[in-house]
Amino acid sequence: METINAKIFKEMIIKAGENIIESEPYLTEIDEIIGDGDHGTGMKRGFTSVLKKLNEKNYEYIDDIANDVGLELLKSMGGASGVIFGSLFIGGLRGFKVKKVKEMDLKQSVIFLSCGEEAITTRGKACVGDKTMVDALTPAVSDISEFAETSSDIVEGIKVAYSGSLVGVEKTKNMLAKKGRAKNFHNKNFGVPDPGAVSTSLLFKGFYEVVLDMKEKGVK
Ligand code: ADP
Ligand code: MG
Q: Considering the entire predicted model, what is its pTM?
């Protein structure tokens, strides 16, 4: 598979959202240990509203979907992670030179993700090692970006990004939080993964599950 159209992109977000909603108890459990315990409910609220919005519309363009997803997350979640996860999609839009994008290939997907990552790090100022979602997002983006230099296979590219995010999640277990409220619970957060990093890996997991399914159904 070499391109993602609006229909596939919508399914990718829906699946990612469902994964996050399903994982609410686990996200709550780990944010209760290292943060203030609201990450799971915040993400569930955000993606429930995203799913509602996406399901009530037929989309022709990828940028319209990204815009709606970002705005729903910003509006419905509040708090640090509403801005952070919203910025992934709103920031990603800056990567499109033109509006009304019907499909994107692997290179365009990489640009979308890189712009989203840049928006998050510009806003939140977190670096790799600070025990945030950046620790999952940055390796995901750099791994898919490196992969895209020699291949245009979207399914394999997203798989590489998903694996990169999982490696990042594992590394957060051995970090002490420096950003967000988790930093107030310093001594307790060793050994537990960062909740936002886990959510990030769940996003990529959902993206991968959908493109893999499309490939298996023979979508070109
Ligand atoms: P809050 O911190 O407002 O309680 P959540 O609990 O929903 O928000 O989200 C916490 C997650 O937000 C953390 O696990 C971390 O991944 C992410 N986070 C916090 N601060 C930053 C930041 N400056 N940049 C990127 N991600 C951050
Ligand atoms: Mg919290």
A: 0.96
